[in-house]
UniProtKB/TrEMBL annotation:
Cellular component GO terms held in the UniProt record: dynein axonemal particle; extracellular region; neuron projection; nucleus
Phylogenetic placement of the source organism: Eukaryota, Metazoa, Chordata, Craniata, Vertebrata
Compositional bias segments (type: Polar residues): 177-195
Protein name (Swiss-Prot/TrEMBL): Dynein axonemal assembly factor 4
PROSITE patterns xrefs: CS (PS51203)
GO molecular function: nuclear estrogen receptor binding
Subcellular location: Cell projection, Neuron projection; Dynein axonemal particle; Nucleus
UniProt keyword list: Cell projection, Coiled coil, Cytoplasm, Neurogenesis, Nucleus, Repeat, TPR repeat
A GO biological process held by the record: heart development
PANTHER family referenced in this protein's UniProt entry, alphabetically: DYNEIN ASSEMBLY FACTOR 4, AXONEMAL (PTHR46492), DYNEIN AXONEMAL ASSEMBLY FACTOR 4 (PTHR46492:SF1)
Coiled coil segments of this chain: 105-153
Region (Disordered): 163-207
CS domain ranges (all copies): 3-87
Species name: Solea senegalensis
Chief localisation class: other
């Protein structure tokens, strides 16, 4: 069942009506807009915005623009007068059904005509392209034919000039052959003897000896990740390992502040462990301070940002919890098996902060992202279902309030 959009806004002049519909994170390619003179529909799953207009409009002169998270619909009025409201309220279900069906039929006819015009335009372009190619091929064939004719004429002239010298050369070769015949008969017997000796020598050749057996040493590259190696994931795994190595060696605190700290307090890993212990005891302020100092020393540790988000969530600092969770998710890229659990925790913490701020749609996105990582987690499934119930309840209550 689609969720009805109620947080839209509209303005009007004597000639135009402007309607702004928030897209709630939907991509431009997934927004479906259908309009007619009496009906308007904007569908981006799972949300639906449907209007049976108060007065007829000129649909051919109306426009729709989608971008920057909002759909802007500019409707041209048929009569220059101000509307009392955007939607009809006195229309019954049967009339609405007929208006909706007529709008869908007109939309299908419009799509069909656009498709036919595009097909005709493509056929015309293809015909022009084929004719142009055939013309170029005829010109190229004509050019090649001229080159062949010129080459034949040149070759014929050379043959005619070369014929007299060729006759003289043949006479000289015949005389030389007659002189060679007499000496050639004496060499035939010698050549036969040589070939017989070569055959005997070939029969005495032995095949090469077998190679000695041996062992080939094979070594395997050690794996850092527990999952099997896949070529499609090699680049992402290498980038993740590079970020982890960079996180362990980058220190961003000022030199003067480092001198005032103890040796163990200069270690971000020690500060993280201290923050974890304070968090387990319920001392969230001390844990927050430990995590903040660790972040000042090293801003590349995703776990510290995620844990500090949990502290902010406990202390009611919801905006800061969202900010730290988002920073942790940025550091947890690329997505590999080694950081799957950390990504799920960050999504849940950010989703919980969104829900505390009553931004249930954004919170549901984070819980669904965590479910993609752990689809069988019953706790995540239960929480996501509760949020869906809240969203659907709010959507159902909104028309009653109007």
């Amino acid at each position: 069942m689609p969720l009805l959009v109620t947080d839209y806004s509209w303005t009007q002049t004597e000639t135009m009506v402007h309607v702004n519909v928030p897209l709630k994170g939907a991509k431009v390619g997934k927004v479906d807009i259908i309009s007619s003179d009496e009906y308007l529909k904007v569908h981006y799953p799972p949300f639906l915005f449907e209007v049976f207009l108060f007065e007829p409009i000129d649909n051919d002169r109306s426009t729709a623009k989608v971008g920057n998270g909002v759909a802007i619909l500019s409707l041209s009025k048929r009569t220059n007068q101000m509307w009392e409201q955007l939607m009809m309220t006195s229309c019954d279900k049967e009339t609405k059904k007929q208006i909706r069906q007529q709008a869908l039929l007109k939309h299908q006819e419009k799509l069909l005509s656009e498709s036919q015009s595009k097909a005709e335009k493509k056929r015309a372009e293809d015909t022009y392209l084929i004719e142009t190619m055939m013309k170029l091929e005829r010109e190229e064939a004509k050019k090649i034919r001229k080159m062949k004719d010129a080459e034949c004429e040149r070759t014929t002239a050379e043959l005619e000039a070369w014929q007299p010298s060729c006759n003289k050369t043949e006479e000289d070769e015949n005389k030389a052959k007659n002189n060679v015949k007499s000496s050639g008969s004496r060499n035939v017997e010698l050549n036969q003897r040589g070939s017989t000796a070569a055959k005997c020598k070939k029969q005495q050749v032995h095949p090469p000896a077998l190679r000695r057996p041996g062992n080939i040493q094979v070594t395997f590259t050690p794996r850092v990740f527990s999952t099997p190696l896949r070529e499609s994931k090699v680049q992402e795994e290498e980038e993740w390992l590079r970020k982890q190595a960079e996180a362990r060696r980058i220190l961003t605190a000022d030199a003067e502040e480092l001198k005032e700290l103890k040796d163990e307090e200069r270690n971000p890993d020690w500060l993280k462990d201290k923050g974890d212990k304070c968090f387990m005891k319920g001392d969230y302020l001390s844990a927050l301070n430990a995590y903040s100092l660790a972040i000042r020393l090293n801003r590349k540790m995703s776990a510290v940002f995620s844990n500090r988000a949990a502290c902010h969530l406990k202390l009611g600092n919801l905006d800061k919890a969202i900010e730290d969770s988002s920073q942790a998710l940025d550091l947890l890229t690329p997505h590999v098996a080694a950081n799957a659990e950390a990504r799920a925790r960050a999504h849940v913490r950010r989703g919980a902060a969104f829900c505390e701020l009553q931004l249930y749609v954004e919170g549901l996105w984070d819980y669904e992202a965590a479910l993609k990582i752990y689809p069988d987690d019953e706790s995540l499934q239960s929480d996501a279902q509760k949020i869906r119930g809240i969203i659907q309840g709010a959507a159902a209550a909104a028309p009653d309030k109007q």
